[in-house]
Every structure is written in structure tokens, then in C-alpha cells.
Predict the structure.
Amino acid sequence: MKRKIKWLILLIVTLLSACQLFLGPEPDTSPSEVLKSLWTDFNNIHANLDFRMSDNLMYNSWYDVYHNKHTGYAFKIYSGISEESLFNVCASMLKELNDPHVGLYAPGKFSSSYTASREDFNIYTIRNELSEEGNGGYKNFVYGTFSLNPHIGYIYISSFINDEPETEGKEWGRAIDSIIKKFANTKALVLDVRSNRGGDIYVMEYIAARFASETKNYLKARIKTGSGSNDLSAPVIYTVKSIKKASDGKYGYTKPIVLITNKNTVSAAEWFTMALRTQSHVTHIGTTTCGAFSARNDRSMINGWIYSISPERVTDMNDKIYEGIGISPDKEHIIKNTTGDEQLEYAVKLAVELAKGTK
């Protein structure tokens, strides 16, 4: 009996040793290693550190500052730091990027890297200005013609978020075809993507195609592949495809379009903006977009927390980078809202002017 017990103990020890051999040692989850691991991941995966690092913090000192190498920062690692304080240190380090696609998640806690801008407009007030408004059965659209200018159409798109993944993101977006059909007798269109939160690229491209008079390449996207700033994959090129004539229930709108953006036009809505700016019948007005173009990936930390990160570097077809800057309308079309919705007023006025040359 004693011999069997000894063999059993030996077997358990051997199995545990084998597990450690194959799986490796448990990761060091000390506060210093948690911070270092997070920094290393961002160094290797985030594609836009050079464009998002704050002016007062050099890239090479980013980790050192929060690892107690400098005394001027309130958030840093110290002996005996609590889990909550460690979360605050990691969150504070990520806030340096001011990236809408970067966030930190722990049980009962969330911290966004980004501070949203205040650029107000009231969609409910706009509804009151429309003679025919609706949402096509989906909350993402508001549309109609203006009561005082019935030959000018209006479409507001609040997001491109895909709530129907089984349809590859196109099902709710198909409502745009029936909406455009309603504007057959208009002479120009105001297309509003202010404060559009972004979403699914399939949805965005399906909708963007309805406003394209020409098929155009509009964007290049590269994935970060290493720790070097320019360690990037070969570019994937994205194309907006024109729907010029009605076919299979699909409709295109190629009369003059005035596109409105603001600082809270984010992500896929910025791809939408970039796609439509390739079209000669589209005039971009409003204010600069957010400047967040990458897809967002969620990843696990060594201590079980989750973070989101931006692994893509996106440029226009001339390799111009808008990350952290945003896409700006031409100078003469930069309009800010101050006391009311001056952006919409300007857009309607411009649409009326552009419509004069439309049959």
C-alpha cells in the first residue's frame, strides 16, 4: 500500500512538472510586469504611436515615466501599489494616446483613452425642419426634404454599426436604397454624418456606393507587424463602387451632395468621408473629423484585464496620414456651430446654390 502511495505521489509530481514544461511557468503578474507587458504590446501592435504621442512626452520615455523613473507624474508604479491604483496607472499611460479605439477594462472598471469633443447639434430640431421625415424602419437614418426648400433632400446617418453579423453587415444598410428612391425629384442632397460613431466597414461601403458617381480607390490600410514604427504589412486598398443606375432595387444619388462632418465623426464614418471626397459632385463642409481610422482589436493582459488597441495605419491613396488630425473640409467650407446649427444652415444654402445647375 505504501509503495502504491509513493508511486502515486511520484506520478502527480511528474505530471505537474510535465505541465510546467509544456505550458511554461506562470507569468509574472507583479505591477511592474503588468505595466511593462502592456507597454510592450502597444509598442509592437499599435500602428500609430508616432502620430498619437502627446507633445510633452517623448515616445522613448513613455514607459519610464509611468514606471517611477520620473517624479513629475502622479500616476506611477510604487512599492505596495493597490490593484485599483495599478489600473489607474495603466489607464493614465494609455490616455496619452487620446485614441478613441483604445480602452482598458477590468472587473467593474473601464477607462477610455479618448476625451470626446463638444460639437453640438440637435437632430430633433432638424426633424422639425423636414416636410417628410422617417427612419426607414431603422434608427440609424433620419431623412426627408426641407419644408422651405422641398427640392433639397436630407439624410442623417448616426452610425454604421452592424447589429446583424449574419448578413455581413448589409441588411439594415439596404434601407438606403428605398430612401434614395424617395429623392428622385430633388436637385441636391445634404448628407450628415456629424457625431457618427463609426461601425462596420461592409455597412459603410454599401451605403457609400449609393453616393458615388465613379468607382474610385480611396484608402490604404496596413497592419503593424513589429516593434519598429514602419514595421507594416503590404497595403490593402479599399474601393468605393459606383451605383449609377437603378438595378435590382439599388439606387444611386449622383446629383450635388453637401457632406457635413464634425470632430465626433469617427472611424468608419471617416472612411466614409474619405470615400466620398473622391467624388466630384460631393462638397465637404463642417469641421475636421476625429482622426481615428484603425480597426479596434480587443486583447487580454497577463493579469486578465482586457484592452483595446489600434493595429492599422490608414492613409489616403497619396499616402497622407490623417491619424490624430482628422480630415478637414477646404478652408472656405469650414463652419463651426456657435449659437445654433450654422453648419446645417450653410449646407442648405450651398445645396440650393449647387442645385441651380441640376435638371
Summary: Residues 2-23 form the longest helix (22 residues). The first strand starts at residue 103 and ends at 106.
